[in-house]
Amino acid sequence: MKLSILDQSPILDGASAKQALEETIELAKLADGKGYHRYWVAEHHGMAQLASPSPDILLAIIGSQTSTIRIGAGAVLLPNYRAFPVAERYQMLASLFPGRIDLGIGRAPGGSAEASIALAGDFLSKVKNMPTLIDELLHFLYDDFPEDNLYSKIDISPQSPEPPQPWLLGTSERSAVLAAEKKLAYVFGHFMTDSDGPKITRKYQHLTGNTKPIIVAVSVICGETEEEAFQLAKEASMWNQKDTSIEEDNQNNDIFSNMIIGDPVQVKEQLQTLQQLYQCDELMILTITSNYQDRKKSYERIANICL
Prior knowledge:
The protein is of the alpha/beta class. The chain has helices at 17-34, 55-64, 83-96, 113-120, 123-128, 130-142, 173-181, 197-208, 226-240, 264-278, 292-306, and strands at residues 3-7, 38-41, 70-77, 101-106, 165-170, 185-189, 214-222, 259-262, 282-286. Strand 2, helix 2 (55-64) and strand 3 form a beta-alpha-beta unit.
């Protein structure tokens, strides 16, 4: 089973943003040693509980402290930017770490309406322009603008012989159709939605003739026992939803409905079931616990039984 990690760089209770970023780097090093396939860093803006607004900066450090694991953004929120600087930054990463760089692309704001305005001005108009932004980004990455295009005169430097691998992230049929139209690999955010994910990914597979890889991103907590795993999940939920009380004996609360929670054997079985349900190539695991040590142990348990 091919497994990867998505890290939102959470600032857990009692921690600083600096510690959160340091923990991200340490977790990437652990993932590299344990055999995880790729390590992606998320992008968020103006959110007090999450520490990474600039994945590319963090990836430069992670790349220098790991050796074989693929690293990337999950995702660059493209409406916040012009395509050219994104291509430059990820080509630079690809030049530093050849054959290891992924460029996940998303359209979510990644923060409040005010943060979106501060970043991009009229964010909604740029969301509507997403297909054109993707086209421009891909042309920059592959240096293949038509000769009559103004941007064909631009030479990106450095230009890596192994460009970043682009992926489109989404949670809807619309994103799956767009990924297929742009001939992009697709990541479905199972942990972010109640939509019929398998139906959406089957649509994507149909449109692409099942020729493109699919990653499914899922929230997982693996404890030494099932009881410990659910306790960790409850504590994490309290951190994430501080105004929400959780009944101690309610293990079937809706907040856990899209999660995989259990001991190592149960988690492995649930991951295998999810992979079969989606018929996907890879699962990307997001784990948030109330402290960094428990988060690390969860990923270690999963690796020890699955990798």
